[in-house]
Amino acid sequence: MSDTLGPVATAVRSMLDSAGGGRRESEIVATTIGRLVASGELLAGDRLPTVRTLAKAVGISPTTVSEAWRSLSSAGVITTNGRNGTRVRALAGSAAPTRYRALGTGAETFRIDLSSGVPDPMLLPDLGPSMARVGRADLTSSYLDDPVVPGFGEHLASTWPFPAASLTVVDGCLDALDRISAEILPFGSAVLVEEPTFPPLIDLLERLGCEVIGVAIDAEGPVPDDLARGLGADPVAFFTQPRAHNPTGVSMSERRAGEIAQVLRSTKTLVVEDDHAWGISTGPVESLGDLLPDRVVHIRGFSKSHGPDLRLAAIGGPSEVIERVRARRMLGAGWSSRLLQLLLLDMLSDETVIEAIATARSVYTSRRKRFLERLRTHGIDLDDGDGLNLWVPVDDEQSALVALAAAGVRVAPGAPFTLGGRADHLRLTVGLLPESDADWLAGLVASAARSGASARVSGGLAPMSM
Ligand SMILES: Cc1ncc(COP(=O)(O)O)c(C=O)c1O
Q1: Which of 14, 33, 88, 297 has the least C-beta neighbours within 10 A?
Q2: What's the 276 CA to ligand 1 centre distance in angstroms?
Q3: Residue 84's CB: how many other CB atoms inside 10 A?
Q4: Is residue 463 included in any domain, yes or no?
Q5: Quick one: which of 274, 251, 122, 138 has its CA closest to 193?
């Protein structure tokens, strides 16, 4: 819509005429504009008439239009920018999680799939014995019971990296990120994320209408100077993965944690720590919780150690945030399945399960080390890192993906992990790669990384794993 006065005035006049009594005029004006935007009659960037012009054209008071403009602005539908006037805002991200989708599974079958970021099903603990015990447990008696089962809260509090004012349990780390974000980030908030980072987090923040700003990461964690630069946007929150960072494998060093806390100390920015690979990470978690009291929400995920299908994560931090998450949840699912919580709690104290997870941790470490060693022999020298994933620089992402696919190997493109879609890395879930396959695959990856589309498996077909 180029000249919006005519159509907006007509729509508003007709809504005012047809509305029954009891509704405020400003509310009717605001919902009319909202509908024009939702139906596509007003497009992002369209300039709205000035308050006085619209008021005069419709025959209402300028105060009424101003009030409507204020509520539309706080709902993020319009934005007023000095001489540029009042315009329709660009919609917050599309409903489709574009980066997440770009990692998609596709229909083709690959001989080796290192694209998924998931733990090896063969290294997950056996649920059988715990299930048998939990099957006899007493479950919910009231919808208003504590959402955390007895004993689990105590376990979490005693193992939490800092004294958390409040703790609760949700359906996995991504659910935690979603619920925390919904509570703390008003539409239009500036937020900082490490770059690269977990693609669904970027999708989620964009969907919430945030201005997402990247903070560079090096071998010790987020780079303090870059974080300081990002603070210029007055961000509401900084999202970080303290260890086994996905995709890079970086864990924050103790020294870096101190530097980061120093940079953040004089601000109000909340830190959201996603310890998604708890249980399979080999290093300690350097949480900022003790350094920035009441400013850190910490997430502990159980998917990588105990299984993604348990769908459980714990969150702990300032009551203000955690209690809001709990309260909001009462108007939805209410709690994470107590059956699953009891199952997890049982496994957390079962010696056989504890041993199985220790074994998984050491197998992941050996697989990673072996692949890194082999890659070094081909001239690609990467930091050791931690967790399931490896972030491999390539000359050209698309050609490297094609070269690997031609050899039956699927890996994840790097671009979805970046804000600007930079296509110069691949993410390999080497936690899934048997050591026996490290040799030939390292050669293939090195050649795909350098020579792009011309890379081919030499000597015919690569051996099958599994
Ligand atoms: C950084 C990060 N956060 C969150 C998740 C999602 O974890 P969950 O299965 O606990 O939802 C993942 C999954 O790989 C991840 O890498």
Answers
A1: 14
A2: 5
A3: 9
A4: no
A5: 274
The verdict on the CB of residue 243 being under 6 Å from ligand 1 is no
Whether 410 is in the pocket of ligand 1, judged by its Cβ within 6 Å, is: no
Residue with tokens 């792009």: 452
- Considering the domain architecture, whether residues 295 and 151 belong to the same structural domain is answered as yes
Counting ligand 1 atoms within 8 A of each CB, the residue from 118, 180, 198 with the most, and so the one to mutate, is 198
Judge if 231 and 327 occupy the same domain.
yes
**What does pTM read for this prediction?**
0.82
Range of lowest pLDDT (4-8, 113-117, 244-248, 458-462): 458-462
Ligand 1 mean position to 140 CA, how many Å?
A: 28
What was the pLDDT predicted at 466? 31
Residue nearest to atom 12 of ligand 1 (CA): 276
Q: Are residues 321 and 202 in the same domain?
A: yes
Instruction: Give the nearest ligand 1 atom to 389 CA.
Output: 16
My answer on whether 145 and 258 are in the same domain is: yes
325 pLDDT above the threshold of 60: yes
Closest-CA residue to 264 (of 285, 245, 236):
236
pLDDT digit string, tens, across residues 336-371:
999 999 999 999 999 999 999 999 999 999 999 999
Does residue 134 lie in a domain region? Answer: yes
* DSSP-derived secondary structure for 59-103: T--HHHHHHHHHHHHHTTSEEE-GGG-EEEPPPSS-SS-HHHHHT
Please report, for the domain that includes residue 408, its CATH number. 3.90.1150.10
Tell whether 157 and 112 lie within a shared domain.
no
Helix pair angle (5-18, 51-58), 10° resolution: 50
CA atoms within 13 A on the CB side of 433: 34
Residue nearest (by alpha carbon) to ligand 1 atom 3 = 276
With the most atoms of ligand 1 within 8 angstroms of its CB, the residue from 99, 114, 173 to mutate is 173
Question: pLDDT (tens digit, 9 = 90+) per residue, 69-102?
Answer: 888 887 778 888 777 788 888 765 556 777 777 7
Q: Atom of ligand 1 at shortest distance to CA of 175?
A: 11
What's the gap in Å between 417 CA and the centre of ligand 1? 13
pLDDT value for 346 = 97
* Domain match, 136 and 205 both: yes
d(CA 110, CA 216): 33
In a domain, 249, yes or no: yes
Q: Is the CB of 206 under 6 A from ligand 1?
A: no
- Count of the separate structural domains present in the chain: 3
Range of the domain at 68: 5-88
73 and 134 in a single domain? The answer is: no
Judge whether 376 lies within some domain: yes
Q: What pLDDT is stored for residue 98 in this prediction?
A: 77
